[in-house]
Specification:
About 70% of the residues lie in helices and about 0% in strands. With about 200 residues, it is mainly alpha-helical.
């Protein structure tokens, strides 16, 4: 496993903890919405990781003489089964769409949800500041994943680099989502509808 600090990821033990862990974290529409969005992000991330595992199992690096068209066809069919989307049958399109989804989710939080929450409950400001800093690191990891994917497609090899970039993103994003839920789901239940 890579060193978390190498990704620009701050020490998780320094995360501010301001909410009561015993506070209810479900039932309110705000809580349900955030939980649903996060569940979707986790599910899509798992699909990407599965597709990369499938690609690795196929021996996809063309340097080994594997028929690249067959590998691409196999991965596209695999993604079709997973995603059931007419316009996202390639790994590149699937990953690019995921990167956009995460970026859009974080933009909504940064520009709407977080300011509303900080205004309603100023004690949450340290948590919100930390979450926004984490969004910047995640944006860099998303960009790295995309660049690594483009490099792999261009070179016909580099699957190990792509899998490493995806693993770093997975580790960081899953930690971020868990922290956000731990600290914000309770307060979201006390606020009027934010969306």
């Amino acid at each position: 496993m890579s060193d978390p600090a190498a990704d620009g990821w701050p020490d998780e033990s320094t995360r501010p903890l301001v909410t009561d862990p015993a506070e209810a974290r479900d039932g309110h529409p705000n809580q349900q919405l955030l939980a649903q969005v996060h569940a979707h992000l986790r599910s899509e991330l798992a699909r990407i990781m599965e597709a990369l595992d499938e690609l690795a199992a196929s021996g996809a690096d063309v340097a080994d003489g594997v028929d690249q068209d067959q590998v691409v066809g196999d991965v596209r069919a695999f993604l079709q089964r997973l995603a059931s989307r007419q316009d996202r049958f390639s790994l590149g399109a699937f990953c690019a769409a995921y990167c956009r989804t995460v970026a859009t989710h974080h933009a909504i939080e940064d520009h709407r949800m977080f300011p509303d929450m900080a205004a309603a409950e100023p004690a949450l400001s340290p948590v919100i500041d930390r979450l926004q800093a984490e969004h910047l690191v995640i944006a860099g990891l998303l960009e790295r994943l995309d660049l690594t994917l483009v490099a792999m497609v261009s070179a016909g090899s580099g699957l190990d680099d792509l899998r490493a970039a995806a693993a770093r993103l997975s580790r960081v994003l899953l930690s971020h989502l868990a922290y956000e839920e731990e600290q914000l789901l309770g307060p979201l239940g006390r606020l009027p509808m934010l969306v």
